[in-house]
Design a protein that fits this description.
There is one protein chain. The chain has about 350 residues and is of the alpha+beta class. It has seven helices and 20 strands. Strands 1, 2, 3, 11, 12, 13, 14, 17, 18, 19 and 20 form an eleven-stranded mixed beta sheet that branches.
Length: about 350
Amino acid sequence: MMAPAGFLLLLLVLTGPGSSRAEPESVPQRENPSSSDGSPAAERIGAAHPVTAVEAEMRNVAFHLDSGIVLHITRLRGQLLPARPADPPALDDKQSFILSLQSAQIAIDTASLGTLLNHKVFAYPGSPLKDLRISTDGDQLIQQGVMGTGAGIRFTMRATVAVTPDGQIRLHPTAVKVIGIKVNGLMKFFGVQLEQMMKLKPGSGARIEGDDIILDPTGILPSPTIRGRLTGIKVEEGHVVETFGPADSLAATPLRPLDRSVPNYVYFRHGTLRFGRLTMSDADLEIDDNDPGNPFEFSLDHYNDQLVAGYATTTMDQGLIVHMPDLETLRPMVAAARPGNVAP
């Protein structure tokens, strides 16, 4: 058993000079203006400009937001709202729209969550957390990494997940180890809370509340901007599954009749939508997966590559159906088409 002096030394390592208690440079939080009734400004934009608000629906889509960050969308019903009042949403410009979620079930795998935390949420000078690796064990998340500035010290934290009353993610530690020694009991003994041990940068999408880490489920994501109210969360094997809006997917009226022969798709209807050099008024754009046997690997960053590698058909009522290969299938073709490469 560690002597009391050893416990005090460990506490000093955690909270003493050079540790993550150092206050980072203050920065303004990202603005999220609201209307007088508390609704996001994006909703007001959509209401003021109904012509450019585009209805959106997705089923069984692996939505690649950024390199190494994938959202696994089982179902999604929402709108593309213009980020700039004068310009309609454009698929080629992720800054041009806000994806407002009405009802959705979205999962993020632990590899994507680790990439998101390391390269976005805690990717700033003086961050108290780095080299994070995420895994699951039953209904708990396990976070391993380095705490503190400089060389820091290695830690492991087990945590439960829950939804706060305002729709945030609460990570509540159930066990904490630092350099292999349990410290959560020690912290309680000395009356130390996690928020006293480390300070997080405002506007990062994460904050400390007592002993809990609070994450903004959409604010931590890279572009495009996503808005929606989190209503449910659970940990499954290798994934964190989030529910936005009503838990019942039938609560949101489907945009298109369910077609079992096309189980994986992205669909946009009504409003004004731009893609490439085309602008669709009263949009009717369906993007189907060429391989219905697995989720549709889709990326806005590589939308044009997927479009060129696929084909399109026009419907009798002047809608457009685009058939695309999965992103992972496309990568070898994109690499082979780069200048300087010689076809075999």
